[in-house]
Amino acid sequence: MSNSLSYISAGVLPIFMMVIILAGLWKRVDVYESFTKGAKGGLGLVARTLPYIVGMMLAVEIFRAAGCFTYLSKALSPLFGPLGIPPEVLPLLVIRPFSGSGGLGVLAGLIHAYGPDSYIARVACVYMGSSETLFYVLSLYFGSVRVSRTRYTVPVALAADFFGLFLACLVCK
Prior knowledge:
The chain is mostly helical. It has one domain (about 45-170). It has eight helices and no strands. It has helices at about 1-25, 30-65, 70-80, 90-95, 100-115, 120-130, 135-145, 155-170. α2 packs across α7, α5 runs antiparallel to α6 and α6 packs antiparallel against α8 (about 155-170). The longest helix has about 35 residues, at about 30-65.
C-alpha cells in the first residue's frame, strides 16, 4: 500500500502539468507565453511583499530573543487558568500568531516535556493545527494589496485564536 502511494504521489505533479499544457493547447492558448507572463507578475508580488515579510520576521525574532513571549504568557496565566486553559500552553498562544516556526518549537518543547499523549500536548497539537500565523498572513496579504487600515481584522482574528485554544481544551478533555 505504501509503495503504491509513493508511485501515485510521484506521478501526480507531472500528470497535472501535462493536463494544464494539453488544456491550453486545446483552447489554442500560447502556454509558454502565459507562463512567462504569470512569472513576471509573481516577481512583482515578491518585490511588493518582501519588505513586509522581512520586517515581521525581524520583529518576531527580536521579541522572542528578548524573552517577551515568556513574560507575556506568565502575565496571562491568571486570566486563562480559571477557563481551563493550561498555563503550559500559553507560550504557544502568544507566539503562534507571530511565528509558525516559533510555534513549532514551542510545540516540540511541550511534547518533549510532557509526552505526546499528555493533555497539554494534545491541546497544543489541536490548537497548532487550528490556528494561523496571523500577523505574518496580515502583513503578507494586506501588504501585497497596500491595505494599511485593517479595522477589525486583528481583534477578530485574535479572538478566533483564543476561541480555538478554548475549544481545543474542551475537545481534548
